[in-house]
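Mods, move this if it's the wrong board.
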Amino acid sequence: MVKAKDLVKGKAVDLAVADGVVVRVFIKQFLPLAPGEVLRLGAARADEKPTNTETLLKTMEGYRKTFPEAQGLGEMNGFTIGPDKDGKSYTLTHLDGVGKRLGVKTRAECMALLTYLKDPDDKLRYVAAFVIEAAVKAYPGGMSTSDIKDVESEGHRTMVAKFIAGIEKLTK
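Not the wrong board. Structure tokens:
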């Protein structure tokens, strides 16, 4: 939750909106320019590559339109969630497989995925939770899918707190 004290001079807020609902809020700190310094804005350099985190976020957002197909029988069997807005159901093993193929390992990538834990799209929420859990191992005995599904539950809040604590321990 963004608090009023976070919205002060020298900070900017970016909102990510999906289907008319704010799903992410980014607060950025601005550093003042030195006296006489000029800020020049221009097009991004063609040789500048996006960071892993930027690529990850673009991939996750791309999953809203086109979700990868299950790979192998292992991803086609198991408990399902859904149906989604297109009427398609997904197995938990399929969502976990999609998450593993993202190759997330860093603190920054996990922090970026935290924003998806309250996403209105169930499949993105599950992928993010499975990926973060694989990196931080907050639930060695397995986690409850109801904590992922019910974003207003105490279990969900506890899960997010455990994930944040685990992410803080990641070295990079």
